[in-house]
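Let us practice reading a record.
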Amino acid sequence: MSKEIMPIKLVLIEDSLHDVESFRRALSADSARKWEVIHFQKAEQALQEIADKGEEFDLFVTDYNLPGMSGLDFCHQILEMGLATPLVILTGTGSENIAAEAIRIGVSGYIIKDPLSHYTSLIPDTLIDVISKTKTKQKLALSEELLEKVQRLAHIGHWKLNPATGAVTASDEFYRMFAMSPGADLAAIMQAVHEDDKKGVLAEIQHCTEHGGIWESRYRIKGVDSNERWIHSIGGAVTGKNGEIIELVGTSQDITGSKMVEKELQKMQKLESLGVLAGGIAHDFNNILTMLFGNISLTKSNFPKGQAGLEPLEKAEEAFQRASRLTNQLLIFAKGGEPVKKGITLGKLVEEVTRFDLTGSNVELAFKTDENLWAIEGDAGQLEQVFTNLAINAVQAMPAGGHLHVTLENIDFSKDTKLGFSSRRYVKATVRDEGTGIDPEHLDRVFDPYFTTKQAGNGLGLATVFSIIFKHGGHIAVDSVLGEGTSFTVFLPASELQQFTKENPGSDEVAEKQHVGKILMMDDEESICDIAKQMLESKGHVVSLASSGEQAIGMYKQSMDDGKPYDCIIMDLTIPGGVGGKEAIVEILKINPEAKAIVSSGYGIDPVMASHTSFGFRDVLPKPFTASSLFEVVNKVLRES
């Protein structure tokens, strides 16, 4: 079954019925195509029909001389209507002026009604040629429009350069990119190029002009937004008939976004490397600190409370705690560790940290807190870093001295959501200095990684603060006035648990009610095992030691076989080259699903430390640990029924 040929629909405006008949006969003789002619004697009648049916027609053919509106006027009307249908004028005058005017206004074709030339036989092919060329022209226009849109979206502009005259012809996107008007020559365009890059770009163009080939360059310009932009240009030489270079052609693309991504990727790669390095250092350093903490704790236990010799030891403990916090600060930002949350009374923590950080400075602390401040669930070590960073920033902002105002209060959003917060209770901490303030143009970037206005700063302090608060489910905001000071406001979710009161004793009181048990301590560091054993035995515990996960599994199985199982196991998370706590607990729980295990690590940001119960552990013991923190966590686990 042959495919039906769709007719070509055209409007013919002709007042001579003789010419209309000749026109129809010419189309009827076209065996290759099917034509449908709608005839009007006046242009006004045709316009009404066209206005009603619009793009239904493939072609408009009009006589030049018509009663009333002329053929050219008709063409003007069609073009003003915005129709893309091709136009053809018929005329018996053969005037070159008419032809020129028709072409000028956008008419697609022109047929002279000359009987001597048998013009009617040429009508079908002439009309088909007009339709074909118009469609080609329309496709080209659409392609150019699409190209312009794509170039704008991709921030790419194309150009041609005459090296002899410096004349440049370019796309709209190129001129927009360089903040130039059409007609700008090479010299004018080069004015937008950064002074440090201009010489290199000109050298590339000169080399391509003299030797041909392709040139490629990346350089900076001052763009349309007056900000520095990065441009990537690629060009090539075009040669004439005799092999001479007549022009350069190419494209230029705004790659500022890509450069920013590349820069951020480099930062992340550096950060990842720092994280790996810091992780190893922290592990070893925290092991050393654990030994120091342990020996100081044991030494302190030999001094009665209130004895003068205790004070230097207590100060040494505080210094070691600061050293541990400094190690963890880089780790938290570099690795983004989850906080190991426990119940915390924030007021005590903040006051102790800020007072310590202001020691030796000329800044005085003005501390105020609600009497019944709600407790929070948080990682004490990470939150100490938050307020340490804020206190240090405040001291640096007040070189001549002043007051650091720290206020803690309860905020209840449980019935009304404010500032996009969750509907719940928060503890609000405000840290306000009386310093130099922050420039408004920098205020939105203070939490960005590596952003700093300090000569000696690394841009990690406030980025670390933001990361910690975010991972605690909280919010942080900054407000500043130049010359008056800066205020940081921290919101941390209040704990849903009971507060620490006299009826609900805190850790110090619980620690006095000691539970004694049989304990297995597993760590690859012999000195840590020894110091932990001394600490635990001082409280009456019976302690066995293992240096690897394999040994700990064997010892635990043997204790079960003997009917004298261990009451608690403390396992180091990481054993270089061997089975660590994460793997060992899986096997031990197979032996005894009720086994009570504590995971310990100098990698404070490891996910096992943050979600220890998901891995089968009852509690965590971050390194470095003191005798009191060791006693507390062991006593808590032994106390569980």
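A brief commentary: Residues 500-511 have pLDDT under 50 and may be disordered.
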